[in-house]
Amino acid sequence: MNSNKSLFIILLLATVFNFTSVLATHNRAGEITYERLGQFLYKATITTYTKTSSPADRPELELFWGDGTSSILQRASAQDQFGGPGSDIRRNIYTGIHTYPGPSVYTLYFEDPNRNGGVINIPNSINVPFYVESQLIISAFLGFNNSPVLLQPPIDQGVIGQPFVHNPNAYDPDGDSLSYHLIPCKGAGGISIGGYSFPQSSISFELDSITGDLKWLNPINCGEYNIAFLIKEWRNE
């Protein structure tokens, strides 16, 4: 019997077309992953992709562990010009270790007030906080768990009027099966953003739930877009 083990990650993708100039401030995309180190001991990693030229740099972020506590995570590394020279993208990695009190369902999340301005499908995006979450289930019945790992960065470029395909190239270190689901982007407090819409297309915009291929046929307007999707893990029990 298949059981839904955990609802893993809300991953905010920023796909940029013709790289039109966008307003400050900061966040383009991000994700939270976790790794089990001991019985209730976990290492969490926040990865963000930000606008290098923005003055709103973040040498630290606050991660809420989902058990009523939080930690200030120091930035472990920052890579400028991520994706190539002149990209104006910085990849930031923050890590922290936490011991949970026992079996339960925990939602890890962070929120930052500085989302990029000018995002086409988020009204007044510069004033909409940037929010990412990941769910961890600690259960003796389901067994121990690590989050899926996404090998393809959530930053990509496309061409107006041409098919666009992005795949996160995810794998699960525990061998769990994965499925993929489009959801609205979230803002302050983890609430779906009012007025959010999926990108416009001349034919279709869809996510293959089995392969993880995000297919955009075909983009109409150039600019920066935020897309969120949920990856679910499935395990035979």
Tell me about this structure.
The radius of gyration is 17 Å and the shape is globular. The termini are close together. A 5-stranded antiparallel β-sheet has the order 2-3-6-5-4, with no helix packed on it. The chain has a 4-stranded mixed β-sheet with strand order 10-1-16-13, with no helix packed on it. It has a 3-stranded antiparallel β-sheet with strand order 11-15-14, with no helix packed on it. 36% of the residues are buried. The chain is an all-beta fold and 237 residues long. β2 (27-36) and β3 form a beta hairpin. The chain has strands at residues 2-17, 27-36, 41-51, 60-64, 70-79, 89-99, 104-112, 130-138, 149-150, 155-158, 164-166, 170-171, 177-183, 201-207, 214-219, 223-236.
What attributes characterize this protein structure?
mainly beta; single chain; globular; 237 residues; four-stranded mixed beta sheet
